[in-house]
């Protein structure tokens, strides 16, 4: 049985650190990595495979925010081979890539968000997902408050896809 995701301290060397400021939402969770040979990009691809209930929530979210002019799953271009900077990995564009970390996410009118997919070094590597959100306005803060009840459930499900 896979190990449950545990809170994780974002390393000082994380590419995500440079974004964190006052009022931002940040969290991190990790699990022991089942396959230590996976790269951050391979981890990102596996982490974004979602169960039906999460896809249903995303469909509902898209229906609710589309009339407000926010980005939806329909705005995501189709995948085209191995993604590079700016290409999408599932529904997130790749922004930065290092040997141990991939940063995905984008900016929108109501908030900016990034997701770090990080693989730790050592004999027992961890796979970690860290989320950073910077709300721009009341709409961004309300949106964040609305998705937070589901956030931990989704992160745990994502990490279960790579857990030892």
Descriptive report:
- The chain starts with 5 loop residues before the first strand and ends with a helix.
- The protein has helices spanning 40-47, 52-65, 138-160, and strands at 6-7, 25-32, 88-89, 92-98, 101-107, 111-119, 126-135.
- The chain is α+β, with helices and mostly antiparallel strands and 164 residues long.
- β5 (101-107) and β6 (111-119) form a beta hairpin.
- It is built from three helices and seven strands; from the N terminus they run ββααβββββα.
- The protein has a seven-stranded antiparallel beta sheet.
- The longest helix has 23 residues, at 138-160.
Q: What share of residues are in beta strands?
A: 25-35%
Radius of gyration: 15 Å
Number of contiguous helices: 3
User: How many β strands by DSSP?
Assistant: 7
Poorly predicted runs of 5 or more residues: none
Form type: globular
Q: How confident overall, as mean pLDDT?
A: 83
Counting helices, strands and paired strands, the structural category is alpha+beta
SSE blueprint:
Blueprint: E1 6-7, E2 25-32, H1 40-47, H2 52-65, E3 88-89, E4 92-98, E5 101-107, E6 111-119, E7 126-135, H3 138-160
Antiparallel strand pairs: 1-2, 2-7, 3-4, 4-5, 5-6, 6-7
């Amino acid at each position: 049985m896979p190990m449950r995701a545990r809170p994780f301290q974002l390393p000082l060397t994380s590419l995500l650190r440079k974004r964190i400021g006052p009022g931002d939402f940040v969290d991190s969770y990790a699990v022991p990595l089942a396959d230590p040979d996976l790269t951050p990009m391979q981890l990102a691809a596996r982490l974004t495979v979602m169960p039906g209930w999460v896809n249903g929530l995303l469909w509902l979210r898209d229906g609710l925010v589309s009339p407000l002019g926010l980005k939806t799953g329909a705005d995501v271009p189709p995948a085209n081979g191995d993604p590079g900077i700016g290409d999408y990995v599932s529904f997130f564009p790749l922004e930065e890539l290092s040997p141990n970390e991939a940063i995905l996410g984008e900016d929108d009118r109501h908030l900016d968000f990034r997701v770090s997919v990080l693989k730790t070094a050592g004999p027992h590597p961890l796979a970690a997902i860290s989320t950073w959100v910077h709300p721009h306005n009341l709409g961004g803060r309300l949106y964040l408050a609305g998705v937070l009840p589901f956030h931990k459930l989704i992160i745990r499900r994502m990490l279960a896809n790579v857990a030892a």
